[in-house]
Task: structure prediction
Amino acid sequence: MRVDVQWHGERRPLPPDIDTSAFRIVQESLTNVVRHAGTTACVVSLDYRDEELAIEVTDRGLGGDDTHKAPATAWPACESVFPCYTASSVPAPIRMAASG
Result:
């Protein structure tokens, strides 16, 4: 599968727990694209914002819409690190922010 990665904002080192969780979210999203989207390409967008990292995975596969954003799966460890982490099957970017 072809994966195009787009970087937005000022790239900077992330705390290890956030870096690992972001990696796992992208990994699971790509797995979902391969298993369920019926497409050979997708785009991963990483948006470094002031207080959060927004991750968006889009493809043009099956999903009922013109574009389909693959949902990510939340792990209990991730929820303890990212109290405001949300994942949804509706077309919306996944946002993560570290508090404190």
